[in-house]
């Protein structure tokens, strides 16, 4: 662990030294921080709300607040552009992300050294970038879009479309434009979140009339993915790409930074990067309530142990200080170190990159019910991708006090309500990488049976608003469908 500690201490020292004269540094006595212990005592653990006042001022043009200089680029973490979390992107942060991506590619080439297998066309499907009305100099967008703009020329020459085209606001238009060109090219590599890649494959088969991706792109070799758990999609990819010797490289990152990647194609865990401008801390067995979690004790990476769930606390080179990322990980190896991602600390449905949290889901359902003259007492929502389906779907289970007269209209209105308040869901829904939601009726008998079969027993056991386990979702669907088939008196 000495190497890990040395690397992380070096990162922390550089961050503190670089920011000793900014407003946040002066407020928290950065000039007096000489050790990790000083760092913990000087700076509280923060949620987004704690740093948001600084971020709002940064978006208004103020400089030297959370990071030296003026920052005009912000990555949208969740919600819509106007309402979501906006993560500052410094020049130093972009350089770190570029370094991370180079490391991913070079590591892959050490495992698959035939570089000529990738000497063809590359497809990249980044997100969008837009400006805000209050300050046209400020840009908001997905981190993938900002990285695409900064991609080196030696990689851009292989791309199907220039980055300037790919970050346009109308995602469906650029998707089809890229697809139309790609089916005429010798595509060797695709970089995309798994849901985009699945949609890209399916549309390629639709447009060409082919039966497999091998017939469209016989030399396709590599899919680099991130943003979603690729394991959910592997059965679909293996079927569509049958006959191809495909490699899958997974990145674990977010708007806050890129953390880990699959450096060994034979393993399912990921290598954590500890020398790239990010300082990590970990909260053992994190509380689900964000306000309670920030009160818990955090430990550095060199004190972590295997087999314990940890909430990630990040200090990055873009102005996030001891920031709760809302992810839960577990170490599989502490000496290198290696991790697996277990899920979210709070209730959030993010299996397909949609970032729909429990509060957002409840608000959308309440507003739709009020509009449609309906009312409910409880609900559960999950996301699933069935093996016999090509598109993931959100499944809602609602216990009605007053059921809407027009259920189809209610579903359409709820879907639109979520789109209006969640950028990621809206993009995925618009471009059919998430199907229109399904809805089932709940009653107390179904809930009781489902809880007894799937949740720990006890008086305080609560039904979660968000389910991320396939078996639990399927079990609830089955109980609802069984009840629907029982004839009424």
Question: What's the layout of helices and strands?
Answer:
Layout: H1 2-18, H2 23-27, H3 36-42, H4 48-59, E1 73-76, E2 86-88, H5 91-111, E3 121-124, E4 129-132, E5 135-141, H6 143-149, H7 153-156, H8 163-166, H9 171-182, E6 187-191, H10 194-208, H11 213-216, E7 222-226, H12 234-240, E8 247-254, E9 257-261, E10 270-272, E11 279-284, H13 290-293, E12 299-300, E13 309-315, E14 323-333, E15 338-344, E16 348-349, E17 356-357, H14 358-371, E18 375-384, E19 393-402, H15 407-421, H16 423-430, E20 435-441, H17 444-454, E21 466-467, H18 470-485
Parallel strand pairs: 1-5, 3-6, 6-7, 7-8, 18-21, 19-20
Antiparallel strand pairs: 1-2, 4-5, 8-9, 9-10, 10-15, 11-12, 11-13, 13-14, 14-15, 16-17, 18-19
Helix pairs in contact: 14-15, 15-16, 17-18
Total number of helical segments?
A: 18
Largest sheet, in brief, is: 11 strands, mixed
Which overall shape is indicated by the principal axes computed on the Cα atoms?
Answer: globular
Helix content: 25-40%
Using only CA atoms, what is the Rg?
A: 23 Å
Give the class from helix and strand content and strand pairing: alpha/beta
Detail the poorly predicted runs.
457-461
The first-to-last residue Cα distance is 68 Å
Task: Output the strand order for the largest sheet.
Answer: 3-6-7-8-9-10-15-14-13-11-12
- What is the strand tally? 21
């Amino acid at each position: 662990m000495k190497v890990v500690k040395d690397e992380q201490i070096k990162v922390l020292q550089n961050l503190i030294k670089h920011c000793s004269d900014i407003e946040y540094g002066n407020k928290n006595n950065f000039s007096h921080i000489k050790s990790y212990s000083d760092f913990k005592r000087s700076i509280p653990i923060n949620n987004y709300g704690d740093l948001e006042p600084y971020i709002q001022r940064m978006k208004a043009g103020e400089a030297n607040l959370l990071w030296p200089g003026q920052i005009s680029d912000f990555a949208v973490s969740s919600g819509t552009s106007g309402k979501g979390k906006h993560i500052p992107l410094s020049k130093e942060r972009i350089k770190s992300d570029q370094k991370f991506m180079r490391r991913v590619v070079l590591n892959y080439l050490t495992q698959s050294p035939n570089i000529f297998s990738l000497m063809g066309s590359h497809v990249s499907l980044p997100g969008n970038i837009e400006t805000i009305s209050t300050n046209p100099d400020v840009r908001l967008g997905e981190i993938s879009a900002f990285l695409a703009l900064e991609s080196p020329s030696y990689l851009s020459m292989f791309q199907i479309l220039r980055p300037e085209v790919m970050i346009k606001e109308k995602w469906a238009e650029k998707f089809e434009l890229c697809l139309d060109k790609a089916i005429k090219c010798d595509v060797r590599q695709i970089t995309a979140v798994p849901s985009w890649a699945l949609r890209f494959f399916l549309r390629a088969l639709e447009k060409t009339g082919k039966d497999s991706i091998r017939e469209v792109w016989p030399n396709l070799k590599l899919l680099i993915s991130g943003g979603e758990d690729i394991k959910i999609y592997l059965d679909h990819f293996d079927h569509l790409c049958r006959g191809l010797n495909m490699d899958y490289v997974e990145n674990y990152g977010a708007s806050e930074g890129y953390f880990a990647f699959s450096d060994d194609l034979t393993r399912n865990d990921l290598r954590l990067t500890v020398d790239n401008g990010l300082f990590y801390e970990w909260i053992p067995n994190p509380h689900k309530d964000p306000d309670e979690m920030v009160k818990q004790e955090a430990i550095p990476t060199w004190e972590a142990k295997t087999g314990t769930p940890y909430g990630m606390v990040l200090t990055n080179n873009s102005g996030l200080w001891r920031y709760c990322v809302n992810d839960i990980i577990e170490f599989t190896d502490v000496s290198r170190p290696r991790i697996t991602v277990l899920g979210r600390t709070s209730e959030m449905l993010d299996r397909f990159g949609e970032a729909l949290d429990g509060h957002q889901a409840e608000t959308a359902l309440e507003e739709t019910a009020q509009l449609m003259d309906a009312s409910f007492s409880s609900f559960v929502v999950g996301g699933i991708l069935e093996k016999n389906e090509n598109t993931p779907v959100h499944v809602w289970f609602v216990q009605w006090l007053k059921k809407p007269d027009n259920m189809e209209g209610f579903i359409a209105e709820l879907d639109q309500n979520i789109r209006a308040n969640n950028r990621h869901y809206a993009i995925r829904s618009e471009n059919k990488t998430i199907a229109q939601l399904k809805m089932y009726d709940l009653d107390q008998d179904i809930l009781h049976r489902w809880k007894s079969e799937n949740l720990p027993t006890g008086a305080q056991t609560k039904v979660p608003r968000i389910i991320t386990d396939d078996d639990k979702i399927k079990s609830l669907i089955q109980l609802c469908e069984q009840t629907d088939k029982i004839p009424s008196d």
